[in-house]
Predict the structure.
Amino acid sequence: MKRILLYILVIFIIIIAIVLVHISDKNTQRNEISKFNVQFEQYVGKDIIYGTDVLTIINKAIDNNEKNKIARDENNYYVEDDSLSVKVYIILLSKNDKGDIEEKTFPMEQLEKAGLDGFVTNFNLTPFELSNIEYNSQKRVSKITVKQLEL
């Protein structure tokens, strides 16, 4: 009888240990996601961010995608996934032939191709806003949209 009670107690302790390890892993994962998101969320709610901040956001997204080996398609754009990829879209203002202001959206890869140094040279003091931030199913930042506020 004591032996059976001892086996039950050992099994119970093993189950408790497994549950505690699982909870600890979930908390660690949640903390890592939160820490990751903060580097992008720090720009949310700011009235104005500048071109240098936009470049920082783009570089962080590119570094993340490279570190996590996110695949690129035939146009050299990162392929979105529902776990680790981050995409940044920039809405730039321009005037058309009639003098009306138009918005044009560019993915970060297109600016990367054109040269990010040129972006900083042309837009370093231009006001932008982080207009949208989207999260994947794991509640991790996956898409960011930055909009130019004035010409």
Notes: The CA atoms of residues 18 and 24 lie 10 Å apart. The longest strand covers residues 87-95. The two ends are 83 Å apart (CA to CA). The beta strands are 49-50, 87-95, 101-107, 127-135, 141-148.
